[in-house]
Write a structure and sequence with these properties.
Layout lengths: L1 H15 L4 H10 L2 H41 L1 H44 L3 H13 L4 E8 L5 E7 L4 E3 L5 H22 L5 E4 L7 H13 L6 E4 L3 H11 L9
Parallel strand pairs: 4-5
Antiparallel strand pairs: 1-2, 2-3
Length: 254
């Protein structure tokens, strides 16, 4: 017991850094015990913080030394160069793959378009010819267009090959399209069954004189298989028919 007490006093003297034991006892008596406890906790936390900072600094220094060794030995530069070359090779391969797929898509689209054009309904072909005549050559025919869902849609085909969907046509041109489809159907039906006359009542209400003239010529074009009869309240339509068709038309005033 005495030996342990002497050891504690020796340790205290070392930590006191020259301060007498009596002075330490007096200072201890004057100090609040709670303050001592708080100071001890703060010191413990500070010690832990210093320890963490020391470990972090040591790890940073170790990484820095290893990185320097890699750079000095050329390992880092070689790795970076290899990674760049690998990325370039991968990009080149992907570019070739994209080009092949793009070309394949274009070729497939062209083949599908040719197949669809070759399989076009003769009735639609005839309606396209009548539509071209009705529009005075503004359109050269009709085609089937396909939306993003590959659903077929009827469209007018301009001389340059551009397609105009029905909703993109003017009111007068839509009327010409519907008339072309009706006439083509009647002509086709007459070729398979007993011919019947076609009766039209003021078909050209939305047509100007130029379009009306084209419409009269289209009616005459199906006259070989269908007898077209047109009723109109407008004398100038009859005059235009006589001027355009001559003896091929009979005008009857009612």
């Amino acid at each position: 017991m005495r030996a342990e007490l002497e050891a504690r006093r020796t340790e205290l003297a070392r930590l006191a850094d020259g301060v007498a034991e009596a002075d330490l006892r007096r200072e201890l008596a004057e100090t609040d015990p709670d303050a001592i406890e708080a100071a001890l906790v703060a010191l413990a936390q500070a010690e832990e913080d210093l320890d963490r900072r020391g470990q972090t600094a040591f790890a940073d220094r170790d990484r820095g030394e290893r990185r320097r060794a890699e750079l000095e030995g050329g390992v880092g530069a070689e790795v970076a160069l290899a990674q760049r070359k690998a990325a370039e090779a991968e990009l080149q391969a992907e570019s070739r793959r994209w080009a092949v797929l793009k070309l394949a898509g274009l070729l497939l689209g062209s083949a599908i378009a040719r197949q669809r054009a070759g399989q076009q309904d003769p009735l639609l072909t005839r309606a396209g010819a009548l539509f071209a005549a009705l529009t005075g050559g503004a359109f050269e025919g009709l085609s089937q267009d396909y939306d993003t869902g590959d659903t077929p849609r009827l469209a007018g085909r301009r001389a340059g090959g551009g397609l105009v969907p029905i909703e993109g046509l003017s009111e007068g041109t839509r009327d010409q399209l519907y008339l072309a489809l009706r006439l083509a159907y009647l002509e086709d039906y007459a070729g398979r069954s007993e011919s019947a006359p076609f009766l039209g009542d003021d078909l050209f209400l939305t047509f100007d004189d130029r379009r009306t003239g084209h419409g009269l010529e289209a009616l005459a074009a199906i006259g070989g298989s269908v007898q077209p009869i047109l009723f109109t309240h407008h004398r100038h339509v009859a005059d235009l028919a006589e001027a355009k068709l001559g003896t091929a038309v009979d005008v009857v005033a009612l």
